[in-house]
Structure formats: structure tokens, C-alpha cells
Design a protein that fits this description.
By secondary structure, the chain is α+β, with helices and mostly antiparallel strands. It has helices spanning 18-24, 27-30, 72-86, 89-111, 118-126, 140-149, 164-173, and strands spanning 7-14, 39-44, 50-56, 59-64, 131-138, 156-161. A 6-stranded antiparallel beta sheet has the order 4-3-2-5-1-6. The longest helix is centred in the middle third of the chain and has 23 residues, at 89-111.
Length: 186
């Protein structure tokens, strides 16, 4: 993608299912249209939990920023805590197991993908809790087509032309996700 000419559009809808509902209401207008294959759907749930699925920056993302962080560090922390706590008997073993697991989980989260930073910060700033959105990072003409297709669907548009640095930061934030599949026939 050419970072010089990218717009970020966030079309926000009331309710966590509002964006998908609005998108499904325009099937005749989205078939075979470039922007329709470049969007991702955001749901901003209670307790500040965000779920994003779809294409963004040429990558397919399916993430929940409130995922449980269970991995090698969580297990190592739990085992280390359990061994250290065993000195104090069964209650110490249990407390060490839980405490070590929590410390390991925090370490796991901090070592995880940076998607949690720039990308989710951008989403949080535009999509209020209890709402959903269709997001598109694309050439201005693709954004214009999306906005026109969703006109009258009661969405609120937040749109900005990105600097090359801003576009690169958002693309870097999702770089660990798999590449999006090319459109059929491409």
C-alpha cells in the first residue's frame, strides 16, 4: 500500500452489532466493489473490550484485545510460584501457583503483539463503548465509495488523511497478522 495517499475511515454505529447490520443492508452496493473487501468490523463491548475482524492494512485480523494470555511464561510463572509456595504447605502451594500464574500472564501480555498499542488506541479514540464500526484504511476513492454506500445507514463518520508515518504505524501494528487473501480472480 502506498502510505502517501491513505485515508482512515471509521464509520461508527450504535450497538455492537450495528456495523455488521448496516453493511449487510447494502449487499447490492458492495458486490465486487474494492472497499467491500478491505474493511474490518469493530465491536467495542462493555469493560472496554474490543473485538476486530476483517481486513486492515492488507492483513486479515481476528483479534480480541481482552484475550487470556496463556502461554509459556504463564505456565513457567505458575510452576515457579507453586514450587516456592510449597515450602509453606498446601496453602502456600496454592497461593504460589495462582500468584506465579498471574505474574507470568502479565509478562506474557507485555511480550505479546504490539497490536494492542497503536491500533487499539486508534480504535478506542473513535468507537465509543457499546458501539461498533466499519473501518477502512485505503485510497481516498475507496473511502468515498464506502461512505456513499453507507449513506443513510445512521453511521457517524470519522475520517482523516494519514501522514506516511501514521499510516506506517497502523500497518506495523497489524504486521504480525496473516496477509489478506487476494480478491477472487486476482
Amino acid at each position: 500500500m502506498d502510505p502517501v495517499s491513505l485515508d482512515l475511515a471509521v464509520m461508527v454505529f450504535d450497538h455492537t452489532e450495528g456495523a455488521e447490520r448496516a453493511y449487510s443492508d447494502v449487499p447490492g452496493e458492495v458486490g465486487g466493489v474494492a472497499w467491500a473487501q478491505e474493511v474490518a468490523f469493530v465491536e467495542h463491548h462493555r469493560h472496554d473490550r474490543i473485538v476486530v475482524r476483517g481486513e486492515f492494512g492488507g492483513r486479515y485480523i481476528d483479534v480480541d484485545d481482552d484475550q487470556d494470555f496463556l502461554g509459556r511464561r504463564t505456565v513457567e510463572g505458575a510452576l515457579t510460584g507453586a514450587v516456592a509456595g510449597a515450602v509453606f504447605g498446601p496453602p502456600g502451594f496454592a497461593a504460589g501457583l495462582v500468584g506465579g500464574g498471574v505474574v507470568g500472564s502479565v509478562s506474557e501480555e507485555r511480550s505479546g503483539p504490539k497490536l494492542r498499542s497503536a491500533f487499539f488506541d486508534e480504535v478506542r479514540s473513535d468507537v465509543p463503548e457499546g458501539c461498533s464500526a466499519i473501518i477502512l484504511l485505503a485510497a481516498p476513492e475507496h473511502v468515498d465509495a464506502m461512505v456513499a454506500a453507507l449513506e443513510g445507514k445512521h453511521g457517524r463518520l470519522a475520517r482523516r488523511t494519514l501522514t506516511p508515518e501514521d499510516a506506517q504505524a497502523l500497518e506495523d501494528a497489524v504486521s504480525g497478522s496473516p496477509p489478506a487473501a487476494p480478491p477472487a480472480g486476482a
